């Protein structure tokens, strides 16, 4: 039994679907939601959670991105293109959210065997199982020239369509992936290339920002040569869980989790506000 089967088979999972409702609220709330569920799961108050989320056009900057010398110019450019801009309080660099990007979170208790690589391998294996008909082998390695590059970029024939991250809180682990489903992966990459071009101008960044090559990124619809929608993937995902013995139950937040979520929303909102205000102060002194 592989790591994915052992986590799913005969195990209880909460299914939380924000793939439609997420379009109505700020993406910061999704990070607060995962932090809430991560805490609840880590404290033993919740079984493992499978959560899907989609948001209207938003660019999620990493902490390092927010400290680029001319980042406010980059933010202004993104807003002119019709995107909201937020700064997350976890690792990683800028990513794109929109109606064609499906985000999945696997939220579980952090056990002794639950290493960083264990979490990444589990998500990679899940995507391989959900897309057994993929037009090429789904590989995991850093795709040079992609946005938010990492050692667990997922690609087919050298083109990246997904990236994985992790967050751990109070004994809980949230393994998160964004899947570029529809539209143009290259256009999304070009958007962030232009952001970085503007955000690094006039100063010396303290980190090596991505030198983005739009041609190395694609959506699954582009890779398959036919449209693969968010609903298509949700059907594949739930079918896989059910066929592999998961006790999957649709769930909402408990009263205790609602109070914790309100606290987490306030927390991430304040951090985001401070990060954006710092950006303006830095830009004003350049």
Describe this structure in words.
Helix content is 39%, strand content 22%. By secondary structure, the protein is an alpha/beta fold. It has one domain (3-284): Bira Bifunctional Protein, Domain 2 (BirA Bifunctional Protein, domain 2, 2-Layer Sandwich), CATH 3.30.930.10. The strands form two sheets. An eight-stranded mixed beta sheet has the order 7-8-9-10-6-2-1-11. A hairpin with a 2-residue loop joins β9 (159-169) and β10. α2 crosses α8 (255-284). The termini are far apart. The mean pLDDT is 92. The active site is at 148 (acyl-thioester intermediate). It holds the Pfam family LplA-B_cat. Residues 44-228 form the BPL/LPL catalytic domain.
The helix content, as a percent range, equals: 25-40%
Low-confidence stretches: none
- Would you give the CATH topology? BirA Bifunctional Protein, domain 2
Mean pLDDT: 92
CATH fourth-tier homologous superfamily? Bira Bifunctional Protein, Domain 2
Biggest pleated sheet: 8 strands, mixed
CATH 2nd-level architecture? 2-Layer Sandwich
- What class, by secondary structure content? alpha/beta
Question: Which CATH class?
Answer: Alpha Beta
How many domains comprise the coordinates?
1
Number of DSSP strands? 11
Supply the number of helical segments: 8
Q: Proportion of β residues?
A: 15-25%
Described by the principal axes of the CA atoms, the overall outline is globular
- End-to-end Cα distance: 57 Å
Q: How do the strands line up in the largest sheet?
A: 7-8-9-10-6-2-1-11
Radius of gyration over alpha carbons? 19 Å
Q: Which H/E pattern describes the elements?
A: HEHEEHEEEHEEEEHHHEH
Enzyme class: transferase
GO molecular function, one term: ligase activity
InterPro entries: aa-tRNA-synth_II/BPL/LPL, BPL_LPL_catalytic, LipL, Octanoyltrans_LipM/LipL
Protein name: Octanoyl-[GcvH]:protein N-octanoyltransferase
